Amino acid sequence: MLVHPTLSGSGLILLGTLVAAAAVFDIRYRRIPNELVLAGILAGLAWNASFSGLSGILHSSEGLGLGFALYFPLYLIRARGAGDVKLLAATGAITGPGNIFLICILTAILGGIIALIVLLIYGRLRKTLFNLGWMVQDLTHLRAPYKSSEELDVTTTKGMRLPHGAMIAVGVIAFILLAKHGVTI
User: Fold this and answer.
1) CA of 20: how far to CAs of 1, 127, 140, 160, in Å?
2) Average pLDDT over residues 143-159
3) In this structure, are residues 41 and 90 in contact, taking their beta carbons and an 8 Å threshold?
4) Confidence class for position 154, pLDDT limits 50, 70, 90
5) Number of neighbouring beta carbons within 10 Å of residue 68
6) What is the DSSP string of 46-99?
7) Are 166 and 27 in contact (CB under 8 A)?
8) pLDDT reported for residue 163
């Protein structure tokens, strides 16, 4: 089943509200407030606990942990900001582990499509493909790409950036639409 039983209409609203607020902050201020992700984590734990007790807390904790684990390596090589990692963890606290994995895949696919469109609009596709090759080369030599090219460091303004909190929101919206239409995996 795609959606955990506790993630029904109200749970999907909670999820959508969290990522919508995070997207607004990320687009406007290029950061996601700690208070917002903490509220998302606590709401996810409480929501799951209210439906399934201790097993709900475990389900929520597994989603939180997996969400964190999926993005933390990207944070270490400065390919994602800390707010993105915490937002995916908070999203996982609401959705649980199976759903957060699907949300991560949807975010990667849809965020990649949006990034491709933006790159084409700004004429940066060739430069980005070059940077991608550079990243792969550095990673295969076990070097963090940001150490050899400032453009590859998410903490600088040297390269082109998309607010990834907004891309997570796009992935979540796709997930909600799939859930509302009863898509199962």
Assistant:
1) 25, 31, 36, 22
2) 77
3) yes
4) confident
5) 18
6) HHHHHHHHHHHHHHHHHHHHHHHHHHHHHHHTTSS-HHHHHHHHHHHHHH-HHH
7) yes
8) 94
Cβ distance 124 to 131 under 8 Å? no
**Residues 72, 60: Cα–Cα separation, whole Å:** 18
Q: Is 30 left (phi over 0), alpha (psi -120 to 50) or beta?
A: left
Using one digit for the tens of pLDDT, what is the confidence trace for 6-59? 577 888 899 999 999 999 999 999 999 999 999 999 999 999 999 889 999 999
Q: Would you state the pLDDT for residue 115?
A: 93
What is the length of the chain?
A: 185
pLDDT at res. 3: 54
Spatial contact of 25 and 36, defined as CB atoms under 8 Å apart: yes
Residue in 43, 50, 54 with CA at minimum distance from that of residue 6: 50
DSSP-derived 3-state class of residue 14: helix
What is the rounded CA–CA span in Å between residue 2 and residue 135? Answer: 34
Domain-by-domain residue ranges, the chain?
Answer: 9-124+160-180
